[in-house]
Amino acid sequence: xxxxxxxxxxxxxxxxxxxxxxxxxxxxxxxxxxxxxxxxxxxxxxxxxxxxxxxxxxxxxxxxxxxxxxxxxxxxxxxxxxxxxxxxxxxxxxxxxxxxxxxxxxxxxxxxxxxxxxxxxxxxxxxxxxxxxxxxxx
Length: 138
Prior knowledge:
Strand content: 15-25%
Largest sheet: 4 strands, antiparallel
Mean pLDDT: 77
Order of helices and strands: HEEEEHH
Low-confidence stretches: 16-30, 130-135
Shape: flat
Number of helices: 3
Strand order of the largest sheet: 1-2-3-4
Radius of gyration: 23 Å
Number of strands: 4
């Protein structure tokens, strides 16, 4: 009887220690992947969904390099609810005159576009749902 209790305690201890270690290492791996893929980010607070509302507009560039990455444009309201979310190839952020430039110039132009994206209403052209966005900007 005593031997069964010792085996049960040993197995319980082993079970808890293994399950906790696995969860910690899996979370660390996921965090590392997310951090390594995020290349650029920018955000601004604007009255997007109405004149009296304060919404957060964010662009996230994820991928291995700027020219082979994805841009995610998000709009969330002051309650944290997502109003719009669109993704596109980061190369769509290039101005037409840069499409034939070398990769260093393209990288620089993408960085500039991301850093200044929300200073004007030009960002609206990148949303697939332009008609919704256009109607909401005041």
